[in-house]
Amino acid sequence: MNSSPDTCLYMAPLKGITDSLFRQVYSRHFPGIDRAVAPFVNPQKTPRYPDKLIADLLPEKNPGLPLIPQALNTEAEGFLALGDRLYDLGYEELNWNLGCPVKMVAGKGRGSGLLPYPDKIIDLLEQILPKLKPALSIKMRLGYRSHLEALALLPRLDSFPLTEIILHARLGTQLYRGPVQLDHFDLCREKTSHRLIYNGDLVSLDDFISLAARFKPINRWMIGRGLLINPFLPAEIKGISLSRGERQKKLQRFHDDIYDGLKERLSGPGHLLGRMKQVWIYYIHAFPGKEKLLKKITRAASEKSFLTAVDSVFER
After folding, report:
1. DSSP of 233-277, one letter per residue?
2. Which of 80, 110, 179, 297 has the smallest count of CB within 10 Å of its CB?
3. Nearest to 118 by CA among 157, 82, 90
4. C-alpha closest to that of 208 among 199, 195, 11
5. Are the beta carbons of 96 and 69 closer than 8 angstroms?
6. With the CA atoms of 183, 185, 191 and 196 taken in that order, what torsion angle do they form, in degrees rounded to the nearest 10?
7. Closest by alpha carbon to 17, among 227, 157, 307?
8. Helix (H) or strand (E) run with residue 202 in it
9. Cα separation, 97 vs 67, whole angstroms
10. pLDDT, tens digit (0-9, with 9 covering 90-100), for 72-112
């Protein structure tokens, strides 16, 4: 056993990848994940969230794996409307995204783009928390432009009844580039009394062992791209062993189930191949020594050429 019995592993929200299909197929083939945070729901100009806008969160699409929806709202009316709608669907917790680094989001003062403005964050929490039906957690970064941003914000969050704070150990301006800033994560630990969940570049068992030793007693961990780079990582952390033959079968069946599911959902091969290529940018690393074959996959212009390239990776 490589982790303590109370270790809890979260699937990170990756926009365009970890939708309900991915979550269900992944948890069916690879053990170890305990909870998932869904990609954020886009804020609406009118505070209405009909089924078509939250289709991926409907309970019938999300059996089994416990799921926490995510809000990106920065104004109270829409935030509360989304919270009410999701609570009525049975969700007892909502996560607030203060971490998305994408310029289209951050440039509008949402996601990590809101971190330089702690007064706005506090003001919104004061407005919504007395009325919000689900419990609230926050996913954030060390800051957008400066590590000082999280250090200033975290102590001010102590007065709010948050369930936990998920902290990605990078700045927003880093996007997903460069190393995680572990020293700054350590500083943030000293600034909050809330439960912290570590997030950022957790892709191998060695990563987990090192981080768990350094950040003890943290026992909750969020894994994002690492679930595709090393799909067996949660099982390895939980001490679940699989034979080489089992691993190979799971890698192939997972891919085929994702492909078949997306083909059924999406209209046209262009959308299908676009989504699958997004997956393969990370998934190729699950096949050491075959990284050069990624070009054949990403350059495939038809389903036939794509599947031929994939079969060369699987050697089938």
Report:
1. HHHHHTT----HHHHHHHHHHHHHHHHHHHHHHSSSHHHHHHHHH
2. 179
3. 157
4. 199
5. no
6. -150
7. 227
8. none
9. 15
10. 999 999 999 999 999 999 999 999 999 999 999 999 999 99
Q: How far apart are CA 250 and CA 244, in angstroms?
A: 10
Backbone region of residue 115 per phi and psi (left: phi > 0; alpha: psi in -120 to 50; beta: other values) = alpha
pLDDT tens digits, one per residue of 36-55: 999 999 998 877 899 999 99
Chain-centre distance for alpha carbon 195: 18
CB atoms within 10 A of CB 290: 14
State the Cα–Cα distance between residues 68 and 220, nearest whole angstrom.
15
Q: How many whole angstroms separate alpha carbon 99 and alpha carbon 105?
A: 10
- Give the 3-state secondary structure of residue 209: helix
Per-residue pLDDT tens for 162-186?
999 999 999 999 999 999 999 999 9
pLDDT for position 115: 98
What is each CA distance from 25 to 92, 209, 250, 254, 287, in whole angstroms?
24, 27, 11, 7, 19
Is it the case that residue 1 has pLDDT exceeding 50? no
Q: Tell me which residue of 175, 17, 59 sits closest to 111, measured CA to CA.
A: 175
Helix 182-189 and helix 148-157: axis angle, to 10°? 20
The whole-angstrom separation of Cα 297 and Cα 281 is: 9
The tokens for 40 are 């954020």
DSSP character for 210? H
